[in-house]
């Protein structure tokens, strides 16, 4: 029998008698579970539950919020293998990366526990102005209210945690809409939060389509904020329809890596293999464009191809698997069509390119041009392009020639070139001597241009999720 799951609304587990959405294992097409599909009335109930939950959360002392968050971190560590199996089965993520996601999620909650006790305002020097001499001023940060969190499939736990943990740390309540393809990680997380003592109504889960659930959250005036991770077109629609709500958007990218003539090619090869193909490259900061100085181009390409061919493609539950399936057959076929288009326009396949079941072999392209979809758009598939350049200035121009601006990697031993890249590249993060896929969960993370608005990373997300209240006392 396929397991039917309930969702958490108002502190109660509900929905087992509702029409269900099947959660499909993208590797073999088996049904992993069935989750209740939310109606418009379900969304309304979740929002009302969150409003009541917010009153309790806002009054909860910081030390108590910190305790809850720390307990959840411990519970994730306790259940890490169970969580990794959920992620591997619903998202098709290779076991080792699913286990890593569980560990990162535990760490993110640990950071949130710390930040819950360290969120504060500051003194304002009122006597800096003659008209306010004799006054004492300071500001505090207060929770913003009910937050609608809309999350994607590719990190079904940790990207949820990056919205849930800072919201709780700041004293807010949430209505969470996880991706319909990967909701089981969120349900597991909700059970751990309930076990940790989170007040009823502080977290509510609704699962369903963007039309029924997402639009309802975005447009409802009872919500104070929407935090979304997904595609630029959907992000733009959310911003247009959200009214006066605060909105943070973590959107797409086609992240570049520059390997300068003086860069460490061996180190770059090792990291680019991971950054280009982990999770079948279904990562916002995956390496998609690699620009290599022409004097090192053949050396890099040869070593990169050799290392890539060692990757094991197959069942994500296999502990030795490196590359699992794409999230769906539709996405696989879309990626293959982009690959065929590039080949038709003159690109060369240096490695991979074959479909194995629902998996696409890790694929390296050369001979690409900037106007090919695999270069200028977000491929979100295990396809990476390697391009030569002549001068560092040219490399910076090529890397920055994008509608996206999330993160970029630069390999160089020249500190002046490193700072030139930091100053020049219009991105949210410049990673020197590593790939743009590098992220730790307490750093500010987000993009420029069509890569988004606002920043994640617990401390920085909490700033987005709070208001400043100024206090001025006339002595």
Describe this structure in words.
With 475 residues, this protein is α/β, with parallel strands linked by helices. The chain has 2 domains: 7-251 and 451-474, Aldehyde Dehydrogenase, Chain A, domain 1 (3-Layer(aba) Sandwich); 256-440, Aldehyde Dehydrogenase, Chain A, domain 2, CATH 3.40.309.10. It is 39% helix and 22% strand. The protein contains 15 helices and 24 strands. Helix 1 (40-59) packs across helix 7 (210-219), helix 2 runs antiparallel to helix 4 (95-116) and helix 2 (62-78) packs across helix 6. The longest helix has 22 residues, at 95-116. It is globular, with a radius of gyration of 23 Å.
Distance between the terminal alpha carbons, to the nearest Å? 71 Å
The gross shape turns out to be globular
- Output the CATH class name of the largest domain: Alpha Beta
CATH homologous superfamily assignment of the largest domain: Aldehyde Dehydrogenase, Chain A, domain 1
Overall mean confidence score, pLDDT: 97
Uncertain regions spanning at least 5 consecutive residues: none
How many domain modules?
2
The fraction of residues in strands falls at 15-25%
Largest sheet: 7 strands, mixed
For the record, the CATH architecture of the largest domain stands as 3-Layer(aba) Sandwich
Number of helices: 15
CATH topology heading of the largest domain: Aldehyde Dehydrogenase, Chain A, domain 1
Radius of gyration of CA atoms, rounded to a whole number: 23 Å
Please provide the count of β strands.
24
Structural class: alpha/beta
Q: Looking across the biggest beta sheet, what order are the strands in?
A: 14-17-18-13-12-20-21
Helix content estimate: 25-40%
